């Protein structure tokens, strides 16, 4: 039943997002990226169909050749334009189809390592996250990740059966995915962990390792060799990033923004928030103190990290406040406390003292020794 429900949800969300597909192509936010991609696609049709020479419109008389990520999806728009004529909404349709297939393969991957039920809920959460919006924009984000999901599924099929067909599909799909968006390559970590923890014939491990060289080498050549060369030759220095050492230093110096991008934005999902609240109510009703204190520490810690104005993080103070006073980290050297945060802290503190009811808080009962 969860399998059938998953297919149903994917199809329903696909059909819902087909609405207004042929409307003006630029959607809310990320307008410059959508505009750049649409210029790539249209210039493939009108100017030059060379994949390695994507072009933007340059009113100053330049060549317009601008090399960012590999224009895989935009070249697909060009290929559709050959028999049907050019339309702006081709990119939106391609992204929606590929991203919907990516959800299905995500379900298959999770089902492989957990249960069908877990895979169903994980896919539902992913579907209603930022994926819901990004999968119908003329951008290659969910498009690239979906291709990598498909490739990973093929890699595990190769580990199981040793056939060359799945291996070739893995190579092609992951190469296209990482070329489309280089961060999608981080998912290659999962097959590595699988090979470490599970017995796989050596021949298949070697075959997978050699096959993985293709997306890695081609991505390196595109992003770190050809893109800088094209920028220097054609004069368009745009979004090339920075050296690895400078990038790591920038991450360390801006940990508050890193935490915001990796945690807050990735959890923009009403379904996730609903599931989190249901879990919170469940552990209170069952008096799961260990789970609750972990939830509380996590919640309080994130609040402190999110205070980007002061860039504060004081785990020792948080631990003391949480266990002994129950104020949820409100003393974190001036960190702002919203009404919602106070309400959550009050409810959790009430459970500490009142055994799950709204009785008088008795915080001295909730000590590390009582866990």
List the keywords.
single chain, 371 residues, mainly alpha, 16 helices, globular
Describe this structure in words.
The chain is mostly helical. Helix content is 66%, strand content 0%. It is built from 16 helices and no strands. Helix 1 (2-18) runs antiparallel to helix 4 (90-113). The chain starts with a helix and ends in a 17-residue tail after the last helix. The model is unreliable at 308-344 and 346-371 (pLDDT under 50).
Strand content: under 5%
- How many separate helices? 16
Biggest sheet layout: none
How are helices and strands ordered from N to C? Answer: HHHHHHHHHHHHHHHH
User: What is the tally of beta strands?
Assistant: 0
Quaternary structure type: single chain
* Shape estimate: globular
> What is the distance, rounded to the nearest whole angstrom, between the alpha carbons of the first and last residues?
39 Å
Task: Provide mean pLDDT, rounded.
Answer: 79
Helix content: 55-70%
Rg from Cα: 25 Å
What low-confidence regions span 5 or more consecutive residues with pLDDT below 50? Answer: 308-344, 346-371
| Content-based structural category | mainly alpha
Summarize the structure.
This protein has helices at 2-18, 31-46, 72-84, 90-113, 116-127, 131-134, 141-161, 164-180, 189-197, 202-234, 244-253, 255-264, 270-285, 289-305, 315-325, 339-354.
Q: How are the SSEs placed, and which strands pair?
A:
Blueprint: H1 2-18, H2 31-46, H3 72-84, H4 90-113, H5 116-127, H6 131-134, H7 141-161, H8 164-180, H9 189-197, H10 202-234, H11 244-253, H12 255-264, H13 270-285, H14 289-305, H15 315-325, H16 339-354
Helix pairs in contact: 1-4, 1-5, 2-3, 3-4, 4-5, 4-7, 7-8, 8-10, 14-15
């Amino acid at each position: 039943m969860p399998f059938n429900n998953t297919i149903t949800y994917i199809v329903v969300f696909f059909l819902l997002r087909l609405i207004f597909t042929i409307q003006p192509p630029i959607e809310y936010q990320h307008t410059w990226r959508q505009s750049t991609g649409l210029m790539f696609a249209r210039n493939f049709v009108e100017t030059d169909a060379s994949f390695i020479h994507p072009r933007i419109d340059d009113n100053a008389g330049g060549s317009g050749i601008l090399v960012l990520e590999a224009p895989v999806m935009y070249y697909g728009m060009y290929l559709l334009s050959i028999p049907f004529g050019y339309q702006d909404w081709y990119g939106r349709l391609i992204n929606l189809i590929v991203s919907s297939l990516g959800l299905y393969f995500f379900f298959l991957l999770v089902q492989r390592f957990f249960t069908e039920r877990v895979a169903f809920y994980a896919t539902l959460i992913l579907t209603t996250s930022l994926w819901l919006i990004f999968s119908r924009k003329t951008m290659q984000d969910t498009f690239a990740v979906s291709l990598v999901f498909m490739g990973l599924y093929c890699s595990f099929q190769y580990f199981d059966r040793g056939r060359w067909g799945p291996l070739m599909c893995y190579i092609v799909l992951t190469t296209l995915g990482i070329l489309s968006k280089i961060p999608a390559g981080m998912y290659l970590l999962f097959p590595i962990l699988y090979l470490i923890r599970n017995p796989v014939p050596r021949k298949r491990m070697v075959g997978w390792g050699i096959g993985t060289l293709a997306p890695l080498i081609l991505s390196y050549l595109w992003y770190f060799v050809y893109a800088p060369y094209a920028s220097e030759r054609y004069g368009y220095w745009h979004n090339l990033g920075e050296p690895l050492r400078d990038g790591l230093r920038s991450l360390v110096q801006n940990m508050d923004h890193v935490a915001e991008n990796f945690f807050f934005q990735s959890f923009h999902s009403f379904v996730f928030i609903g599931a989190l609240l249901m879990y919170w109510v469940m552990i209170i009703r069952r008096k799961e103190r260990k789970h609750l204190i972990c939830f509380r520490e996590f919640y309080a810690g994130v609040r402190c990290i999110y205070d980007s104005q002061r860039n504060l993080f004081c785990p020792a103070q948080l631990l003391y406040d949480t266990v002994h006073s129950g104020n949820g980290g409100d003393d974190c050297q001036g960190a702002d406390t919203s009404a919602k945060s106070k309400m959550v802290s009050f409810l959790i503190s009430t459970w500490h003292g009142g055994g799950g009811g709204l009785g008088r808080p008795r915080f001295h009962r909730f000590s590390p020794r009582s866990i």
